[in-house]
Specification:
Strand content: 35-45%
Number of helices: 2
Strand order of the largest sheet: 1-2-5-3-4
Distance between the termini: 32 Å
Number of strands: 9
Order of helices and strands: EHEEEEHEEEE
Shape: globular
Length: 149
């Protein structure tokens, strides 16, 4: 997963790419939490856009953003990270609002027990990995923050 942590990199994002390897994406990092909105200007591939707060909690997922669509996609308030992946990946991994993403850019407890999340149902086990090149993105829910069903 590529990292976009400067204003210039965030502005360019995944524009003008004809394709992206299946388990790849772009991780957008903002210095502080803020209100964000994305669009698909000059983006040629459909994406899932995952909006994440400063603790790594997924706040919202916009699934299957349409290529070249300039309609703003609001992510909400207090967003510090955004993950763009190929459309359908968030559903395939069962990622949803209230789940957590781990990444070295997120200040989190390194000894974080969690349950794997599959289509919204917490299950014991390790989390799926959404990343390559030694940068792992894990979708899991800490034991003390389990969703109430």
């Amino acid at each position: 997963v590529e990292v976009a942590d400067s204003a210039e990199e965030r502005a360019i994002g995944l524009m003008h790419r004809q394709s992206m390897p299946y388990n790849s994406g772009m991780w957008f990092i903002y210095e502080t939490p803020r209100t964000v909105a994305f669009w698909m200007r000059n983006t040629l591939i459909p994406l899932d856009i995952i909006f994440v707060d400063q603790h790594g909690e997924v706040q919202k997922i916009h699934m299957n953003a349409l290529p070249m669509d300039e309609t703003p996609i609001p992510g909400g308030d207090n967003i510090q990270f955004v993950l763009e992946v190929n459309a359908g990946l968030s559903e395939r991994y069962g990622l949803g609002a209230g789940d957590f993403i781990r990444h070295p850019s997120i200040k989190q407890d390194p000894a974080w027990p969690c349950h794997r999340v599959s289509r919204g149902v917490a299950q014991p086990g390790s989390a799926p990995v959404l990343g390559t090149g030694g940068r792992k993105f894990e979708s899991c829910r800490p034991d003390h923050l389990q969703k109430k069903h």
